[in-house]
Amino acid sequence: MNIDTEILQTIEKMPESLKQELLHYAKYLVKNYSKDVSLEQHPVKKRRSGILKGTFVLPLSDDFDEPLADFKEYME
After folding, report:
1. Per-residue model confidence as pLDDT tens for the chain (76 residues)
2. What is the pLDDT, as a whole number, of residue 17?
3. Using alpha carbons only, what angle is made at residue 57 by residues 55 and 59, rounded to the nearest 5 degrees?
4. Cα separation of 50 and 53, whole Å?
5. Residue 11 and residue 19 in contact, taking contact as beta carbons nearer than 8 Å
6. What angle do CA 21, 24, 30 make, to 5 degrees?
7. Residue-by-residue DSSP string for 6-72
C-alpha cells in the first residue's frame, strides 16, 4: 500500500470535524513547506573548539582554596 492510499483510507474513517481540521493543516503545510528547502541552502555551522580560550581568565589569589573568615565559626 502506498502512502496516498493509506492517507485516503484513514481520511474516510474520520468524522467531518477532523476532516475539516486536517484540511486546514494540509493547506498550512502546503503553503509554508512547499518550497524545496534543503540542507545545502542552510549549511549547519560547525563549532570551533577553543575559540574562547583565555577569555575568562580571572586573577585568583594564592589563598583561593583557603577557608573564608566568614565561615570560621562554622568550620570549628
Report:
1. 799 999 999 999 999 999 999 999 999 988 888 766 554 566 678 888 888 887 877 787 788 888 888 888 887 7
2. 94
3. 150
4. 5
5. yes
6. 140
7. HHHHHHHTS-HHHHHHHHHHHHHHHHHH-S---TTTSPPPPPPTTTTTTTT-----TTTTSPPGGGH
> The whole model's pTM is what?
0.43
Which DSSP symbol is given to 2? -
CB 22 within 8 A of CB 11: yes
Residue 61 neighbours by CB distance under 10 Å: 7
User: Which letter does DSSP use for residue 76 in this model?
Assistant: -
